[in-house]
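Hi D.,

Good news: the full-assembly prediction came through. Inputs first.
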Amino acid sequence: MPELPEVETIRRDLINLVAGKTILGIRIKLPRIIRKHKSAGEIRKRIVGKKVKELDRRGKSLLFHLDGDILVIHLGMTGQILFSTQKHPFQKDKYTHAVIDFEEGKQLLFKDVRQFGQMYVVRKENLEKTLELGPEPLVKSFTLDVLRKLLSAPTKIKVLLMDQKKIAGIGNIYSDEILFEARIHPLRPANSLSQDEVKRLYQAIAAILKKGIKYRGTSADSYLDALGRKGRYEEHHRVYRRSGEPCRVCRTTIKRITIGGRSAHFCPKCQKYHNSRELRA
DNA sequence: AGTACGCCCTGGCCGC
DNA sequence: TGCGGCCAGGGCGTAC
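Then the structure:
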């Protein structure tokens, strides 16, 4: 499932491949991936003939800056954006739902097995209103104080980290890994964290997301980068999908529980559910 | 307001 | 070999 590190990896690769290039056309086989538009023709009219000025990312969304419009691509669970210069057997490939054609025969294939991904065009000035995302966790303005203010409600910390309206870009994999790094139990109410825990959480968010980017993302399910390569971060996972296996720190068996319909993995010893007061080391 | 749950969707896996 | 049942979960809508 592409989260911030996976989308950022794709963005960095695509900059060198399609930035500055003009979109010549879009072929759409599965119209349901085009959202927020009355017709496929509408998106076509707004992107064809336009040059990709810049590639950006906001949370888990990839942003192609065109002339005043932005083409937004969200990969959902199993979406992939694959760069190709070969003429693709588009109609025969059951998972390639759309192809964006650029000059010089360059193409971006939009593949998605589960069809949760989507693309749409939005006016630049309406982007934030449309996305409704919390702050980017890897920018300078995301300070310890910003995080502290987000933790004022009793929401379970795991749920809060995955709430895109609170913080942008963190999903199930990275929230598990962040909470392990910070040694915080996923069920802890956000407003029960001690000063020290908030600090650890703040540092863990940056450290784990950067680590994810460093290893080019997680390919646990189906993630591939723009050139079809896997990420290597799952080799470094310490809790995600490791239930039943020994903790890499203390050898305690990693546990899996369900929180809000999603699986959460944690080490019961490293991430104890004790209340705010920290044990003195 | 917080939270649980169902839905969209399909492949993979398990048990029979 | 096949088939039903369940699981994976991002985002969204709904209900409590």
